[in-house]
């Protein structure tokens, strides 16, 4: 038998043996991983930490509802996704000082809301849906806990497009 034919047969045998042994090893590894992996894992709190023990995330319970919190490298909470006690979902975003600055949530009625609070914690901008089913952008100045509505923009949509009406309402605190 010529040398080239023998080398070809040896190479072909090596490929077949390698492929077969790789397949068998992969199947053995997969069966071991799947049998060692629990189908269900239960706990009251999960804390995700890095190799130095720094907490990056928590999945836990608060007020009998689940919540997920994310933390930055300085241990400041930067975001939280949770359910209120009545089951309504909220997403909050926090600044460097762990102060809530933006929120996306649903009102009890199911209407979505988007809100922003400035760094001084005195100016608030949020969306609102009024009795006429028009969305409003409301600018409020928070003065010692009593909101003063500064401006509301009424937005309605129909077949002709989006319509905006500016209501500059200066209200004194109640």
List the helices and strands and how they pair.
Blueprint: H1 3-36, E1 46-49, E2 55-62, E3 65-71, E4 77-83, E5 89-94, E6 100-106, E7 112-117, E8 123-129, E9 135-143, E10 146-158, E11 161-167
Antiparallel strand pairs: 1-2, 2-3, 3-4, 4-5, 5-6, 6-7, 7-8, 8-9, 9-10, 10-11
Give structural notes.
There is one protein chain. 20% of the residues lie in helices and 47% in strands. The chain has 174 residues and is of the alpha+beta class. It folds into two domains: 1-39; 46-167, Alpha-Beta Complex (Outer Surface Protein A, domain 3). An eleven-stranded antiparallel sheet has the order 1-2-3-4-5-6-7-8-9-10-11, with no helix packed on it.
CATH fold-type name of the largest domain: Outer Surface Protein A, domain 3
Q: Please give the share of residues in helix.
A: 10-25%
> Which stretches are low in confidence, meaning pLDDT under 50 for 5 or more residues running?
170-174
Query: Which of globular, elongated, flat, extended, rod-shaped describes the shape?
Result: elongated
The pLDDT mean sits at 78
Strand order of the largest sheet: 1-2-3-4-5-6-7-8-9-10-11
- The end-to-end distance, rounded to whole angstroms, is 104 Å
Report the β-strand fraction as a percent range.
Answer: over 45%
How many distinct helices? 1
Order of helices and strands: HEEEEEEEEEEE
Determine Rg (CA atoms, Å): 30 Å
Structure class: alpha+beta
């Amino acid at each position: 038998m010529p040398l080239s034919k023998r080398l070809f047969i040896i190479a072909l045998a090596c490929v077949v043996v390698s492929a077969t042994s790789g397949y068998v090893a992969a199947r053995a590894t997969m069966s071991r991983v799947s049998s060692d992996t629990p189908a269900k894992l239960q706990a009251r709190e999960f804390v995700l930490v890095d190799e130095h023990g720094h907490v990056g995330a928590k999945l836990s319970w608060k007020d009998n509802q689940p919540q997920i919190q994310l933390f930055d490298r300085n241990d400041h909470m930067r975001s939280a996704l949770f359910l209120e006690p009545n089951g309504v979902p909220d997403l909050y975003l926090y600044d460097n000082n762990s102060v809530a600055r933006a929120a996306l949530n649903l009102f009890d009625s199911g209407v979505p809301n988007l809100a922003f609070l400035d760094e001084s914690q005195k100016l608030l901008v949020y969306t609102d849906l009024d009795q006429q089913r028009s969305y409003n952008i409301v600018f409020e100045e928070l003065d010692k806990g009593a909101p003063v509505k500064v401006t509301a923009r009424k937005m309605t949509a129909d077949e002709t497009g989006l319509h905006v009406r500016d209501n500059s309402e200066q209200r004194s605190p109640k």
